Amino acid sequence: MLKFMRKIPAGTLLIPMLIAALLNTFVPGLFNIGGLTEALFTPKGANYVVGLVSFCSATSIDIKKIASVLKKQGVLLLVKIIVCFIFGYGYISLFGQEGIMGVSAIAFIVAICSVNPSVYLAIVSDYGDKDDKVAFGLVGLVCIPAFPMLVYSITNGGSVDWTPIVSTIIPIILGMIIGNLDKDMASLFSPGLPLLMPFLGWSVGSGINLIQAVQSGFSGVVITLFYYIVLLPSIYLTETKILKFDGISTLGMSTIAGLSAAMPMMFVSNNPELLEIATQATSQITFGVVLTSIITPSLAKWLADQKGIVKNN
Fold first, then answer.
1. What is the torsional sign of CA 31, 35, 36, 42?
2. With bands split at pLDDT 50, 70 and 90, how would you rate the model's confidence at 237?
3. 3-state per-residue secondary structure call for the chain
């Protein structure tokens, strides 16, 4: 089974994610029996797994070499953030809350702001180097709900809750401190990343309903196209033409996170009038999660083959 999963790009993440999504679609609530089972096999454990992965990856960050991480992934994420603000503002200005081609402003902003750090880690583990992997925590900063809410609020007006950002940073900082103070602790925790990948995939997949995703139909495909068209050119050109790297990190950052499917409903608490739009956006983004989780790893494999990048063992 493991050999089969390793033949598929990001397979140790995607196969458990697909199995969990199938179970959640056709037998929802199967593991909702409380206790350890519910904590491990439902979305309730997702934050713990992501926090643990952030901590473990951060223990391998050498503070003396952190500049190399910021020089590459830091720049790429900065470009993504700038692009999200520009296109978010432009989309609302041109098309309003209703959007175009069935894609509302909320759906558009949540989608383009999304990045799946789990798929990022899986792709760079296959085709990247050590510095790419230790940037997992940094990539995770963009995955939190506060980011699309920040973009939406600034482009549309409103307040921002900074608590989720601080909450995401704490495991990363603690991991860096422990890993740099005691290299033996770094050696203990950093090899745990491959072990956590299937659990990460399962926790994400257990929150995906495939029928709901397919029901979004045409607009789900449109939002996926918007995602690639808006983000890929600017970030890829930055990495390959300006930073002079191979482009693998860009593709690693080009998948919509499963967590993003839950974000549209978060807007409703402050804006009840957005309920109908948010409900539709949830289906569209869920379909985008499924599509990008399949397409992006395949693109990464194709790029690696084109550039002669050998898959890591």
1. positive
2. very high
3. CHHHHHHCCCHHHHHHHHHHHHHHHHCCCCCCCCHHHHHHHCHHHHHHHHHHHHHHHHHCCCHHHHHHHHHHHHHHHHHHHHHHHHHHHHHHHHHCCCCECCECHHHHHHHHHCCCHHHHHHHHHHHCCHHHHHCHHHHHCCCCCHHHHHHHHHHHCCCCCCHHHHHHHHHHHHHHHHHHHCHHHHHHHHHHHHHHHHHHHHHHHCCCCHHHHHHCCHHHHHHHHHHHHHHHHHHHHHHHHHCCCCCHHHHHCCCCCHHHHHCHHHHHCCCHHHHHHHHHHHHHHHHHHHHHHHHHHHHHHHHHHHCCCCCCC
What would the two tokens of residue 242 be?
Answer: 């300006």
Residue-wise pLDDT for 33-48, tens only, equals 988 898 888 888 877 8
Spatial separation of the C-alpha atoms in residues 141 and 135, rounded to whole Å = 10
**Spans of all domains in the chain:** 48-306
What average pLDDT does range 103-119 have in this prediction? 91
Torsion angle, alpha carbons of 43, 47, 50, 51, to 10: -160
> Where is pLDDT greater, at 26 or 135?
26
Q: Which residues, 6 or more positions from 281, have their beta carbon under 8 angstroms from its beta carbon?
A: 104, 106, 107, 110, 264
Residues 28, 212 contacting (CB under 8 angstroms) = no
**Cα→Cα distances 138→5, 32, 58, Å:** 26, 32, 9
CATH code: domain 48-306 is: 1.20.1530.20
pTM (predicted TM-score): 0.74
